[in-house]
Each structure stands twice: as C-alpha cells, then as structure tokens.
C-alpha cells in the first residue's frame, strides 16, 4: 500500500479511508516516530501508545470546533502528524521547529501549551463551561489523561467540580500501567483491579431506565434496586470511584482497537453529563513492528525516549556524568552515613537517577507519583519528627508546591532540603520545563537558605551542609555535564562566597555553574583585551555574602552578576538590594541572566548563546560596558561649550 500519511492534511482526510487503510496509517505514524526519534531523543513510548486512540478521537470529533486537551502533552506527536504537521515533523524539538508539546501557535488543534501533568480535566471543564456560557454549547470537550497524571491532586479537584456540576465532559483515562517508571500508589492497584472487570457501561443509567420502565412500585422497590445497583457496582469494582464522583464510568476497553474505539466514542459523544472512558493501552505499543526489533515489543519500554541507536534506552544523556549523577551519588552517600536522611521524588526516579538509592534504601526512598505538593508537605511531616528529608525534584515541577514550601516548610522553619534538578534552561523541552524561577521563589521566604554549586567540587560539601543545617535549604543545579574547576576549593560556609580570581578592571560574580564560562571569558578578555577581570563563586544567594560582594562593588569599575535564572527577582536583584541597603552606587553593575520572557525550545547551548549566557556573551557584556564607560568619560572631557 502506498504511503497515505503524507497526504493527511487534516483529520477529515481520515474519514474516507477503509479500516485497512487506517491500520496502514497507524503503522506509518509508528514508523515516522521511530524514524525521527532514532535521530533525536524525545518522548517515544508514550506516543506509540496513543496512535489508535488519537485517530479514533479525530475521526469521531471535529476538533477544529470541539475541544481536545492531551494531559501533559508529551504524547502529542500522533496528533500533530494528523493535524497537518507531517511535513514539519522532522523539525520537532529543534530550534524554530515544532514544539514537542501542544502549541497553539502551530495549529488550531492545539489549545494550551502544556508540559506539566494533571491539568487537562480542569481546562477541558473550563472550555466546556465557557463555551456553554458563550452560546457555543454544541462544542464538545474531551480530556485525555494518563494513569500517571491521574494521581495529581488537581485532577481530583477537577473531577469533583465537574462531576458535581454535571458538565458534559468526556475524560479518557489512558491506562498503560506506566508513569515514566512503573506507577505507584493505591490508585495503581485500583486501576489494576478495573482491568480485571468486564466492560462496564454506566450501569447507573441502565438500572434507572429499568426503574423508570416499571409501573409505579413505590419507594421500597426503588431503594432495593438502588442497593442492588450499588452491590453490582461493588462487585464490578470497575469505575466506582469515578461513578461516586459523578462521572459515568465506561470501560475498560482496548485502546488499540480502532474500529471499536470509533464506535464507542460515537455512542458516548451523544450522551450527556460527565463521562469517564477507561482505555487500556500499551506504552511503546507496536514499536517492534515499526523497528522490526521483536525484543522491544514484548518488553514494554519503561522509558520515555529513544536513543540514536534505534533502541529503547533510558533517558539517555550522552556518556559524560551530569550534575544529576553527582547529586544522586551524594544522596546515596548521605543516606548511607545518616539513617535519618530520606529522599522523595515525584515520579522522576529515573530523571533524578535515584534507581540505586531506591535499591539500597527502599525504606527511605519515596516515589509519591506526580504529586509535588504532597511531596513537600510529606517531607515537612517527616522533618518534624527529626528526619532529614530531601525533596529531589525538577525546579519547574516544584512550582506546583509553592504553598507547601511557604506553609509546611518555611513558616514552620523545618529542615527540608530541596535539590533542584534541571534548574536553568533545559533545551528541547522548552518553556514548560525550564527551571528558571526557583531563585526568586525560594529566596522570598524567610528561613530558607538558597545556594548553588559553582562546579562539581561544591556539590558534596553543599549536600553535607544542607543536611546538617537547622533550617530548610535549596540547592539548584542545571541539566548539564559536570565540570570541575582547578583551584584550591575554599570550604563551603553558609553565606560565604569564594573569590577564585581577583581583577582590577572588573569582576564576574557568579551564582551557579556558569562559573566555568565566566572564568573562560575572563581568560579570553585578559588575552585579547588586556583586561583583568576577577571571578567570584557566589555559592549563596541567601544569605548573600555581603562583605565580599559589597567590597567588590565598591572597588571594581565594572561588576557583572551572572545567574542561569530569571533576572526578575533573581541573584542580581539580591545584589542590587544589598547595595541599596548599604547606600552604594549600582550604575556600574550589569546583571546577566534570563530575560523576562519565555525561552523557546532549542538545544541548551543555543538557548544560552541567544541570551548571552556563554563565553561570547560574557565577553560581549564586558566590552559593551567598557565602551560605555569610556564614552561617558570622553563626554566628561569635552570642553564646556
Ligand atoms: C507536574 C509534572 N510532574 C512531573 C512530570 C514529568 N512527567 C512527564 S510525563 C510523566 C509520566 C506521565 O505518565 P502518564 O500520565 O501515565 O502518561 P504516559 O506517558 O503513560 O502516556 C511524568 C512524571 C510532568 N510532566 N509534570
Ligand atoms: C514530559 C516530561 O515532563 C518528562 O518526560 C521530561 O521531558 C523529562 O525531562 P528530562 O529528559 O530532562 O528528564
Ligand atoms: Mg501511563
């Protein structure tokens, strides 16, 4: 059969195809996923698992009018391939190319830029209620949510609200037994039980129909039948949880049976009220057919991404060690040395490279699922008992726990340590995943110490400090390979910076691992411009080393603060605030960091270069500042007119 997928310009083009042709398109989609993702690590297994579901949805609904939200959005590739973006698919997750998540700028079929799990039911509910109020009640609303995302607290907030309101909303639970790692928690076992039940379709409605058809038999028979119904539901087990929240439960159904999915979705489309359809899929489904590698087909890939060697690998990040490796090794060591140390992850055991910790200390390792708010409050509870919990988490995902950081940790002054992985720009995952806001949001609370290693040598002493300090500590580090700067490493002391190089013409004051590039820039400026630029490893943003930093501000003609975080309220702002309270002039201070806008997906090096946060950028900043200073001094020398 000749290729069909390249001719699919919109989902409407699917309508004219036979079942055999549709099956062919599904295979073409899988082949396309394997082809592109063999050259570029991206989300693979989750996309393979939703091919038929995506096609069925787009054949039953018209999402140019109806509303479709894919929870998290990492499984959006089949949706993009059949909504007119096949020709650009090679560009996915590259600078200027398609985003690896939904993107309304690309297509009317994408409604929200997402990347954080758990929000689909809320937004789909809002879309439906809004459309109704706007007089567009003919627009249907559908959310597709994975079993990993399902456990996020916000999902139950939405189910409760939509179920209570009786909104016409279809929630499709895409159950593939996996988060990134195997799923955890009681809901996981509940869903496993649901898998064992027969197809169950909203018996409540069926039984009520029987009731209505009977001649009036008074309340007694009704309540007896109601009890029978509840007994049946209890027996079925399937979906009771959702039924009790006001959603009629249908399922479980095979998520790879395209004809049956289309039939079922057509039936459900005409029904009223909140409905939850439980769909069973296989993460990584069909990859063997696509890559002709039988091994991977029968061992459902537990990983999200494919490496360049066309094999399912873990979240592959090149051969060299990353800061994540150094931190997870330190966590392991600290847990070995101190039985009071525990570690919590929010479904990112693999991303945080905690597998060895999980194996060595199963009683002190906690994967709470995609439940970041709970993770922080859980850690606070442990800290209250005298434990030393580490919340090991991506900076961007910790944003979900803002209020627990405030109330359960800072306000109680409890010793919870936050190891903030993926702080700074993260490359192809783009704006939903950059960890660029943690400096401001961590330093605003009393009682939290905010620090960042300048290089690998700082990691272990900082971890040790963080786990012995009486209060909460946040340590941020980026998604990049380790670097060790040759020097006599000064001991890590709270609120103390480390002067690495002195200079006369200016100074870089660096918070974080851009320290290496600042040193290389200073070396280049010495060689090419004859400038003597000092470099300070700030190490702490809060408390700031006022003595060292304010002395540099007083003595240096040019001062450059450097951080891989937003400038709004970041480290540079902390320095300006300190200068202001000390009554110092700050005109000669230049803050280098992430501008007040969202940074598009690209390679991390491209993103840093674009923001001037690399060697070239640092040299350019110094040269521009110097030119400005000499202009001003020339203008001062001009004879009075
Ligand atoms: C708030 C938040 N925490 C963590 C993640 C990281 N993450 C991305 S996908 C994923 C697993 C999602 O599992 P599931 O919802 O079952 O979707 P599947 O990949 O199985 O289709 C996780 C934990 C995230 N995107 N958002
Ligand atoms: C979709 C999601 O949030 C995760 O899969 C994330 O993309 C992982 O990022 P890393 O590759 O940095 O672990
Ligand atoms: Mg899943």
TrEMBL record:
Mg(2+) binds at residues 147, 176. Homodimer. Pathway: Metabolic intermediate biosynthesis; 1-deoxy-D-xylulose 5-phosphate biosynthesis; 1-deoxy-D-xylulose 5-phosphate from D-glyceraldehyde 3-phosphate and pyruvate: step 1/1. Catalyzes the acyloin condensation reaction between C atoms 2 and 3 of pyruvate and glyceraldehyde 3-phosphate to yield 1-deoxy-D-xylulose-5-phosphate (DXP). Coiled coil: none annotated. Keywords: Isoprene biosynthesis, Magnesium, Metal-binding, Thiamine biosynthesis, Thiamine pyrophosphate, Transferase. Belongs to the transketolase family. DXPS subfamily. Residues 321-485 form the Transketolase-like pyrimidine-binding domain. This is 1-deoxy-D-xylulose-5-phosphate synthase. Pfam families: DXP_synthase_N, Transket_pyr, Transketolase_C. PROSITE patterns: TRANSKETOLASE_2. Its EC number is 2.2.1.7. It comes from the Bacteria. PANTHER family: 1-D-DEOXYXYLULOSE 5-PHOSPHATE SYNTHASE-RELATED, 1-DEOXY-D-XYLULOSE-5-PHOSPHATE SYNTHASE, CHLOROPLASTIC. The lineage of its organism: Bacteria, Pseudomonadati, Planctomycetota, Planctomycetia, Gemmatales. One of its GO terms (molecular function) is thiamine pyrophosphate binding. It comes from Tuwongella immobilis. One of its GO terms (cellular component) is cytosol. Its cofactor is Mg(2+); thiamine diphosphate. Binds 1 Mg(2+) ion per subunit. Thiamine diphosphate binds at residues 74, 115-117, 148-149, 176, 372. Gene3D superfamilies: 3.40.50.920, 3.40.50.970. One of its GO terms (biological process) is isopentenyl diphosphate biosynthetic process, methylerythritol 4-phosphate pathway. It catalyses: D-glyceraldehyde 3-phosphate + pyruvate + H(+) = 1-deoxy-D-xylulose 5-phosphate + CO2.
């Amino acid at each position: 059969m000749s290729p069909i997928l390249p001719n699919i310009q919109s989902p409407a083009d699917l309508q004219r195809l036979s079942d055999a042709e549709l099956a062919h398109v599904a295979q073409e989609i899988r082949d396309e996923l394997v082809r592109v993702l063999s050259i570029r690590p991206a989300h693979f297994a989750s996309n393979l698992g939703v091919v038929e579901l995506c096609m069925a949805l787009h054949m039953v609904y018209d999402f140019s009018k109806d509303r479709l939200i894919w929870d998290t959005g990492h499984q959006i590739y089949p949706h993009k391939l059949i909504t007119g973006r096949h020709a650009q698919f090679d560009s996915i997750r590259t600078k200027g190319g398609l985003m690896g998540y939904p993107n309304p700028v690309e297509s009317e079929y994408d409604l929200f830029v997402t990347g954080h799990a758990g929000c689909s039911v809320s937004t789909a509910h809002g879309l439906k209620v809004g459309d109704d109020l706007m007089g567009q009640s003919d627009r249907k609303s559908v959310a597709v949510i994975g079993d990993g995302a399902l456990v996020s607290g916000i999902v139950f907030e939405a189910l409760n609200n939509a179920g209570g309101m009786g909104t016409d909303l279809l929630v499709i639970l895409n159950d593939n037994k996996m988060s990134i790692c195997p799923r955890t928690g009681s809901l996981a076992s509940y869903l496993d039980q649901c898998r064992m039940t027969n197809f169950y379709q909203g018996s409540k409605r069926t039984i009520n129909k029987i009731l209505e058809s009977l001649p009036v038999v008074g309340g007694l028979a009704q309540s007896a039948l109601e009890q029978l119904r509840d007994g049946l539901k209890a027996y079925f087990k399937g979906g009771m949880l959702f039924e009790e929240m006001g959603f009629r439960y249908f399922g479980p159904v095979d998520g790879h049976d395209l004809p049956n999915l289309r039939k079922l979705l057509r039936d459900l489309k005409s029904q009223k009220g909140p409905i939850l359809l439980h769909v069973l899929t296989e993460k990584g489904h069909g990859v063997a057919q696509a890559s002709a590698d039988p091994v991977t087909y029968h061992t459902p890939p537990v990983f999200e991404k494919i490496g360049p060697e066309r094999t399912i690998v873990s979240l592959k990040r090149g051969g060299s060690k990353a800061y994540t490796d150094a931190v997870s090794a330190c966590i392991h060591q600290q847990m070995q040395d101190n039985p009071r140390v525990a570690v919590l992850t929010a479904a990112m055991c693999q991303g945080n490279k905690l597998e060895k910790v999980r194996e060595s200390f199963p009683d002190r390792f906690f994967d709470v699922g995609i439940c970041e708010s709970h993770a922080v409050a859980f850690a606070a509870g442990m800290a209250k008992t005298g434990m030393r919990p580490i919340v090991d988490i991506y900076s961007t995902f910790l944003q979900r726990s803002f209020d627990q950081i405030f109330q359960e940790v800072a306000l109680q002054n409890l010793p919870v340590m936050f190891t903030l992985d993926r702080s700074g720009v993260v490359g192809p995952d783009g704006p939903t995943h950059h960890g660029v806001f943690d400096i401001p949001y961590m330093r605003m609370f009393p009682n939290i110490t905010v620090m960042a290693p300048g290089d690998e040598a700082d990691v272990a002493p900082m971890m040790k400090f963080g786990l012995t300090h009486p209060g909460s500590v946040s340590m941020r580090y980026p998604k990049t390979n380790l670097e060790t700067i040759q020097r006599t490493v000064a001991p890590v002391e709270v609120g103390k910076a480390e002067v690495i190089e002195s200079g006369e013409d200016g100074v870089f004051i660096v918070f974080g691992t851009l320290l290496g590039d600042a040193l290389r820039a200073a070396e280049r400026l010495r060689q090419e411009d004859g400038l003597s630029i000092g470099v300070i490893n700030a190490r702490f943003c809060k408390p700031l080393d006022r003595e060292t930093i304010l002395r540099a501000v007083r003595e240096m003609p040019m001062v450059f603060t450097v951080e891989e975080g937003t400038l709004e309220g970041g480290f540079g702002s902390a320095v300006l605030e300190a200068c202001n309270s000390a009554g110092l002039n700050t005109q000669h201070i230049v803050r280098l960091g992430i501008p007040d806008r969202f940074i598009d997906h690209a390679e991390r090096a491209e993103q840093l270069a674009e923001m001037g946060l690399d060697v070239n950028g640092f040299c350019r900043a110094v040269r521009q500042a110097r030119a400005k200073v000499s202009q001003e001094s020339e203008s001062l020398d001009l004879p009075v007119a």
